[in-house]
Each structure stands twice: as C-alpha cells, then as structure tokens.
Amino acid sequence: MLVLPALIAAALAADSLTAPPDSAAPAPRVVRVLEEFIVHGSPLHDPRSSQTLQRLSRETLRALPVDNLAGAVALRAGVVARGEILHVRGGRSGDMRTMLQGIALEEPFRRRPMEVPLLALEQAELVSGGLDAVHGGGLAGVLVLQPEEPPARPAGEFLWQTDGGLDTRYDRVAGRFGLPVPGGFGAVLTAEARLDDTYLPALRTQGRRDVLGGSFGWRADNRLLGHLRVAHGSESRWALDVLASRIVDQPWNPMWSIDGYTSPDGDPESSGLGPMYSPEPAPGFQRYNAADHFAMTDERRLATVLSWTRARGTHRTRAALGWTGLSSVTSVGGQDDEAYLEQEFEPIWGLPENRNSDYFLVYQGDEPFFRRRTAHATTVRADHAVSTARGDALEVGIGGTYEFVRLREFDISLRNFRIDSLRSFEAWAPGAFGYAQGRWVFQGMVLNAGLRAEWFTAGPQAERQSFGEPAQGILSLSPRLGVAYPISVRDVFSLAYVRVQQDPGRDFLYDNRRRATARQPIGSVDIEPATMVSYQAAMKHLFEGPWAVQAAFFYRDLWGQVGARYELDEDGATRLHYGGEDDGTATGFELSLIRAADDNGLFQIHYTYMHARGIQSLEEGTPYGLRQGVRPPAFGDHPLDWDQRHSVALAVQARRAGRWPWAVALTSAIGSGLPWTPRPRRQLEGDQSQTNSRRLPWQESTAFAMTVWPRWLGGRVTLGLQILNLLDRQVETATSVDGYPHPVINTIYDDYGAYRTQTGLPGGAWWDDANGDGVPGWIAVNDASLFQAPRTVRLSVGASF
C-alpha cells in the first residue's frame, strides 16, 4: 500500500533515480501505473503534485451526519456554504465544476451541478488550488467524483432516516444493490428519495392526498436521485454511468401566507376599504390559500457517461462520451401551462396606510411568472498518459462539446409599462479543448507544467438575438506551472501558478427583449470567458501513523466575470444588460489537520482565513431600486456576500468493534459573520459605497450522530440517532430577501435591510402606517428564512448484506 513517506523518499533518492543502466542496483520495472485516486493509506494527495486536493473517502461520506454531497464538501478548507450553495476560495456558486470520468455534470444555463446520491460514491476529490491542465473551466476548482464499483458478489445496503413528523416532516430512503453480470460485467444501482418540509411553514395544499389516515405527496423540498453503473471486469475498462434526478421545490414566502377567506374589493356593502381577510366564510369572500398560488419548480435531469480505459505497462489511454440533459418548469402548481398569466389572475396586494389590509400580503391572484427551460450538452474526450520509472510523466488530451439551450420565460408583473414580458431564445454552439500536462523529476525537485487551450463561441444564433452580432470564436490559453520540493522524508513544499478560463453560462448570452426591467438584465452575445490567475504556496507534512497536516497560502485574481451594466440604446434610453466586466480577488490561508479514516474512525479539522472582494456578488447587480430606470451603478470593490473571514470546520468519528459495535460522529462549522448592507429607510440610494460594510454575528452549527449494530440483529442492521444544530443556535444568516413581485417592499426599497439598520433587530419588517393614524412605523415580519434552522432530531434504521 502506497504511503507518503515512501513516495517522498523515492523523490529524494536522486542517485537511484538517475543511476545508469549498468549500475549495481537494477532499475525498477513498472508493471502497472495506478491512478492517483486509488492510492490508499495516506491522508494526503500525491506529494509530487502541486495541486491542493482534499479527498472525501467512502468512509468519510458514510460516517458524517450530512444529507448530501454539498454538506460534506462544506466541511472542507476554503469552502463557505450558504445553504446548499458552495463558494470555494471566494468564487461564485457556478465557479466550481463537478466531473465524472472527465465529463462535466453541469447544465449550460448557469453551470449548476447535478446532485448525486451519497451511497453511489466511492470518493470525491475537491481540487481547489494549483490545478493541472487536465482540469479546465472551473474558476473556483473542480470536484471529481468516483462512483462505487460493482461488487464481486451480490451486495447491498439500505437506509431509512426520519424525524417521525415531529420536526420538519423529513424522510430519507436510500439503497444500493450490486451484483456481477455474466460476461465479465458487473452492475450497481443506487437510489435515494429525500423529502423534507424544512423548518419553514408548510402552507401548501396542492398535490397532497389523504390515504389511510396519512397525508402523501410532495413536500417543500423533494429530491429523487438515482445512479446506475455497469462496468466490465475489475479493471473497469468499459463503464457506463447513468444518473437521474428530479427536484421539486415548493418554496415558502411570507408575502404569500394568507390562508382563509378574502375579498379583493373589501366589504361588498362598502367601498374604498381595499382587500380584506376573514378566517371564517363570509358573504362576498372567497376561499384563498396564497401559498398554493406561489410558483414552484419541477426540475428533471439525466446524464449518461460511457468511458473506456486501457492501462498497459507505463501507458494509459482513456476515452469518454457524455450527455447531460435538463428539463425544468417554474410555475404556479408546477404545471407546464402559462394560461394563468392573465389579467384576471394577477396578484392583488393589500393597500398601504389601510387598517383593513396589510400592504405586505397577497389577497388574491397568482404569481405572475412562468419559466420553461430545456438544455442538453454532449462531450467527447480522449486522453493518453505515459510515465517513466523515475517518476517523469506526460499526459495529453483533446475533446469537444456541443451545447443546446431553449428558454421561454414570462414576467407580467409590469403589464402596460411598455416592458417586454416575454423572454425566449433557442441557441446551440460547439466548443473544443486540448491540453498537455507534464512532470519532470530532477535531483529531488519535481516540476509540474502544463498548457490548456479552450475554444468558445456563442454559436450561429448569436446574430439573431435582439442586440445580436456575428459570433466570434475565442481561443483561450491557460498555462499551469508548479514546483514540488520534498524537504525531508515527511515534508513537501510546493509553489503553483495557474491561469484558468471559464465559459459564461448560456443564460447570460441570449435574449429576444429590447426593453426589460432592472430585475432581469438583457443578454449579451459578446461576453467572453472569465479569467482567474492564482498563486499558491503549500506545505504537506506527514506525522507518524495516519496523521498529516496540510497548509496553503493563496491569492486569486479574477476578471471578465458576468455582471450588470448600463448602456444607451439607439433611442437614447438606458438599457441594463449583462456584460463580462466584473472583477474580484480572494486572498487566504488554509490549515488542515487530518487523520485518515480507518476502522477506528476519522478526525479532520480545517481552519480558513479568507478575504473575498469584488464589484458585484450577483450577476444581476443590486436587487433593489427602480424597476424601470437606472439603479446605482457598480463601482470599486467591496466584500462579497460570502466573504467569511474566519472559519473552522471539524469532522470527527470514533468507532468501536467487539461484541457491541458502535460509532459516534460529530461535525461542527464555526464562522465569523457574513457581510450585509445597511440601507436608508424608503430612500433611493445614489451609490453602493456602503455595500456589505457591516457584519452579522458569528455562526455555528454542530451535528451529532450515533450508530449501533445490535448483536441480536446479526450485526448487519444498524440503528441510528442524528441531531442537527445540536446547540439550537438560530442566528441570522441573511438580512433581506428579494420581494418580487411586490411593487415596493424589498423591490424598490430594501425594507428588511433598512429595518435592521435603524433598529438593530433581525427578522425583517416593512414601513407603513397600518392603523391610519398618520404616524407610520415598522411592522415586524419575523421572517424565518433569515435564520439558521433550529435543532432537529432524526432516527434511522439500516441494513447491509
């Protein structure tokens, strides 16, 4: 089994590496070159590499009290998690690529990754610094997935986890079954269903049925995931991976929370009272549950990857063909029908300064929004690697891509305002890439150098857009350079320089509109790939046994990112459009102490200091201001929304065998407060100089899990207990939300942010004279979505064979 000291010693032994053929010590003969991901026994990555790589082993993924892969990655160094959105080394949410057998699992619109069931993974590797040329298109790094291989004999496992309906109505059912197939093949099938009403109020009624005293149907957050792998032989020379997912998201919004009887015109016997609400039936009032009229999203994704690998002596050849598809609908009720976008179904809000209704709430109507997205991407690639006995290596590869996107989006919230309410496009475009990565060992020094070339174009549909022009193919060259120097048999120091280009999401390129609201800028086909240049100094040290420490300093400079900018059209009017003009920087230090997972458990603790700054956090720009007209322009740089200066992530598991086997696991994430922006009360801001100038309180989230293998159940059945947010801390995670489609609150004005600025209180509020006495004031919302989820307790039962 390969370990770090042996590899370092081999790198230091320059005399033996450079010995002449007639030396007394014969040169070693390489029988087979193993892939880096199957090097076991060391908690650290290949010491000859200049990359910063954090490995999540199978044991780690199974041991931690996390629901999904994002939760496990969030416990790594350099990662800031905001919900399930991950920001790696200061990058945006779409800046990290997720790869399976060299095929990207992102959709083309915004480069969002596909979710994979945890039980389907043998391991995952987060490459966040010093990327080799084999990795492309990820400004924040690459997450490399390695699926479970088919077993030599039938085997499987099953898990059911539930809170019994006592906390959030959470259920997770997952299973995996594998077996050999005649002809030298093997197959493994994994499926997972995760349904959760979350800690937010569950007010919807659509899609639920009462059966035998129970209520069944979609919950607030629903995820159905599957993976099938068919491989040939233990070497997996031929392998087919099929992934499928369906996510049904039924979000909660306090503006859409009325459940009772409403009259949009007030009391039928009076006039001028505005909308009214009654908890009981009343003449002229209609039954209305606002949550059922708030849009939901039904997203379905499919990916197939056919790969072939051949290793012979010091040569290895790989080829892969992949296809990913997306079909998504966002609408009221999840229906693929935009018929509800009629004037008679438009939302009716309460009136301001009216004692009979709340200006914050919807009393009738549907959310005036519909979106249908369809996309698919095809990738083909081939790679060849060769190595020598002393450690020199060369890998080259080439590939091509083809992306197709189709969008139909209606927003009628500003009907009759001379605004284009329909946004639609259909476009396709090819792409290509090639790379070469080499490694040279000399006198104990290791040089890692590579060059990656990528070709991007907006495609032939570019000139057919509203502000289109002929597409220009763009060739990007990305050099990679790193030096690794073993300074002792247990220490390796490395330096790395990396330049990476990432293609923009197709959603930012195309558009048929000419006049749009400031909420959704117009696409621009002239956006070029964004660029990141990174410098890194890293140290790896292996202690006695399975312990190791890894440290890294990094500096990342980004430019050409997508952002919102104003320009004049041919009529002299201002137009907000997407452009590739945003800049950003990220500077930080990572320190990790790791104990490799074994039969006794695991231990990992990561500290990160990071300073992430940029012009804009959102590609759309500031979400508050005039819905028509110029909003404050972006200028200078400021802390980004995910600029968490200090963070500590701890993951521990202890296992004991014997007559009564058991295991306990603990994870804890502690971080300094995220930035937020103070806002004036009911004033249009003239600049963004105060953007993210203040900080929220420190955040902490601890999870605990305990698993036992009862002897009287044969040792193959597990009983488990899991407690999330063990200390029940419910601190703020945000200060405001997007108020769309409200005409004023949290759209023109950031009432939530102004409330916290003026009072120092969390939870959000809006400004109004609710009782009509001529003295306006703050009306608190206590918006639960602004806070961390409370403590939840779950039980589980599992089995394996």
Written account of the structure:
This protein is mainly beta and 801 residues long. Residues 1-40 have low confidence and may be disordered. The strands form 8 sheets. It has a 22-stranded antiparallel beta barrel. A 5-stranded mixed β-sheet has the order 1-6-7-4-5. It contains 5 helices and 41 strands. The chain is 4% helix and 48% strand. A hairpin with a 5-residue loop joins strand 33 (646-656) and strand 34. The protein has one domain: TonB-dependent receptor, beta-barrel domain (Maltoporin, Chain A, Beta Barrel). The chain is globular.
CATH superfamily: TonB-dependent receptor, beta-barrel domain
Domain count: the total is 1
Which geometry do the CA atoms define?
A: globular
Radius of gyration, Cα only, in angstroms? 28 Å
Share in helix:
under 10%
Strand content: over 45%
What key attributes describe this structure?
mainly beta, Maltoporin, Chain A, 5-stranded mixed beta sheet, 5 helices, disordered N terminus
In short:
By secondary structure, the chain is mainly beta. Helices cover about 5% and strands about 50% of the residues.
Write the layout of secondary structure elements.
Layout: H1 4-12, H2 14-17, E1 52-57, H3 58-63, H4 69-73, E2 79-82, E3 85-88, E4 96-100, E5 103-104, E6 121-129, E7 141-147, E8 155-162, E9 170-181, E10 185-196, E11 208-211, E12 214-217, E13 221-232, E14 238-249, E15 259-263, E16 276-278, E17 286-289, E18 296-312, E19 315-331, E20 348-349, E21 362-364, E22 369-387, E23 393-411, E24 422-442, E25 445-456, E26 474-488, E27 491-502, E28 530-542, E29 547-568, E30 574-598, E31 601-614, E32 638-639, E33 646-656, E34 662-671, E35 675-676, E36 694-695, E37 699-708, E38 717-724, H5 751-759, E39 765-768, E40 777-780, E41 792-800
Parallel strand pairs: 4-7
Antiparallel strand pairs: 1-6, 2-3, 4-5, 6-7, 8-9, 8-41, 9-10, 10-13, 11-12, 13-14, 14-18, 15-16, 15-17, 18-19, 19-22, 20-21, 22-23, 23-24, 24-25, 25-26, 26-27, 27-28, 28-29, 29-30, 30-31, 31-32, 31-33, 33-34, 34-37, 35-36, 37-38, 38-41, 39-40
